[in-house]
Design brief:
With about 425 residues, the chain is α/β, with parallel strands linked by helices. Among the domains are: about 30-195, Sulfate adenylyltransferase (Roll); about 365-428, no CATH class. It is built from 16 helices and 15 strands. It has helices at about 1-10, 15-20, 30-40, 60-65, 75-85, 100-110, 160-165, 175-180, 205-215, 230-240, 270-280, 305-315, 345-360, 380-390, 395-405, 415-425; strands at about 70-75, 95, 125, 135-140, 145-150, 150-155, 185-195, 220-225, 250-255, 290-295, 320-325, 360-365, 370, 375-380, 390-395. Strands 1, 2, 3, 4, 5, 6 and 7 form a seven-stranded mixed beta sheet that branches. A five-stranded parallel beta sheet has the order 10-9-8-11-12, covered by helices on one side. Helix 11 (about 270-280) packs antiparallel against helix 16 (about 415-425). The longest helix is centred in the middle third of the chain and has 15 residues, at about 270-280. The protein is globular, with a radius of gyration of 21 Å.
């Protein structure tokens, strides 16, 4: 198996990987021949058929930068989008959507090529002087990330975008609030020439690099999260390997998003530190040996069903064949009355409806609950708990964060002690 061929190298680097350091991967501006070799390391075909890589060769960087007519300092969200376009995580995109493609994705969730795209990828600006034909040097906190050739500039219909993509136009929705209040009044589209990636507190392996460490002949189940992994999450993604639609010998790729998210979420750097601790704690367990980890510089939109498609598409490009769809996937609540914008299984049903065309198998998450006392506890399905007649233990994410802030003890049935210790030390 191709997986065995990688095993020696992976074991040699295991300590560094388990500690959260990046493996010794090839640079993102690798040649097309070597990139194709990496792509074949996982059995999943990239979205659109080819893994995009917009990075220019190091020797050509200065010449590309010299063509720029303007310099734009990007926001956190924009930098995440640029990095994921450059490294192929958003294949088949080679840049930000032009106006026609944007309109198609907004209305029909489809690119001009016919490929599915859950949410539109756009660069926004308030700069009225930017015009078609300009070449923009896109920078982020001291890093020159890309040169963008402006091919289209327009005044978007943001209310329509919000209705179609988020299902609402009220700023009570965090994604709508982002579109309405954070993004500039103009959108600009055009191709990118990748230059570099920003320095982060956590490693973000490219799709090609992740594919190299995945098995080439077995299913890969992706687990998306934007919060620290608690015990229920851990039980959920490790048990997903035994789902009836997952093949033997499968592995799970835990792939947290570490970019901007909701206002009250724990920041990406702190989340990464919790993942490092959990990896170290579980690496020698049977489940830990079937678990791989990588980190994604993605900014959450909280768009429910359409964001579930976006997550599946991205993980497909990272080599995953399956994707865990939980209750209220990428869901959000009204900032006014706390009501959910999406049904508990709306994203799951939408993912199932588009799964065959997308080429990713959705794995519905088990409805796991905890029963027992503070010391002797176990996670079982809600159906089994009901049949037993036992009391189910409950603690909401909001209550958990309140207890953290107040310094109250966190029950170990809910969260790993190592994770809680990191959160107490790092998160305020």
């Amino acid at each position: 198996m191709l997986y065995k061929a990688f095993l020696v190298a992976l074991l040699a680097a295991a300590d560094a990987f388990q500690a959260g350091a990046p493996l010794s991967f090839q640079a993102p501006h690798s040649s097309s021949a070597s990139l194709q070799q990496l792509v074949m390391a996982a059995k999943q075909v990239p979205h659109g058929g080819t893994l995009i890589n917009t990075f220019v060769a190091p020797a050509n960087k200065a010449a590309v930068i010299a063509t720029a007519t303007k310099t734009i300092e990007m926001t956190d969200r924009q930098s995440c989008d640029v990095e994921l376009i450059n490294n192929g995580a958003l294949s088949p995109l080679k840049g930000f959507l032009n106006e026609d493609a944007y309109n198609m994705v907004v209305k029909d969730m489809r690119l001009p090529s016919g490929d599915i795209l859950g949410l539109p990828l756009v660069m926004d600006t308030n700069d009225e002087s930017i015009k078609v034909g300009d070449k923009l040097l896109l920078t982020y906190k001291g890093t020159q990330m890309a040169v963008m050739t402006v091919e289209s500039k327009w005044f978007p219909d943001k209310p329509l975008e919000c209705i179609k993509c988020y299902g609402t136009a009220t700023i009570e929705h965090p994604g709508v609030r982002m579109v309405a209040m954070e993004r500039g009044k103009f959108y600009i589209g055009g191709s990118l020439q990748g230059l570099d990636v920003p320095t982060r507190d956590f490693p973000c392996a490219t799709p090609a690099e992740v594919r190299e460490m995945l098995p080439g002949d077995a299913d890969v189940v992706a687990f998306q999260c934007r919060n620290p992994v608690h015990r229920a999450h851990y039980e959920l993604f490790t048990r997903a390997l035994d789902a009836p639609n997952v093949g033997p010998g499968a592995v799970v790729l835990v792939h947290p998003t570490c970019g901007p998210t909701q206002e009250d979420d724990i920041d990406g750097t702190t989340r990464h530190k919790t993942y490092v601790k959990l990896i170290e704690e579980t690496k020698d367990t049977p489940s830990g040996k079937r678990t791989q980890w990588a980190y994604l510089p993605y900014s959450m939109h909280m768009a429910g069903p359409r964001e579930a498609i976006q997550h599946m598409l991205i993980r497909k490009n990272f080599g995953c064949t399956h994707f865990i769809i939980g209750r209220d996937m990428a869901g959000s609540k009204s900032s006014v009355d706390g009501e959910d914008f999406y049904g508990a299984f709306e994203a799951q049903d939408f993912a199932k409806a588009n799964a065959e065309e997308l080429g990713v198998v959705p794995v519905p998450s088990l409805n796991l609950v905890c029963v027992g006392d503070e010391v002797n506890f176990e996670y079982i399905t809600a159906e089994e708990a009901k049949a037993r007649g036992g009391e189910v233990k409950k603690l909401s994410g909001t209550k958990f964060r309140q207890m953290l802030r107040a310094g109250e003890p966190i029950p170990e049935w809910f969260a790993f002690k190592s994770v809680v210790d990191v959160l107490r030390a790092e998160w305020k």
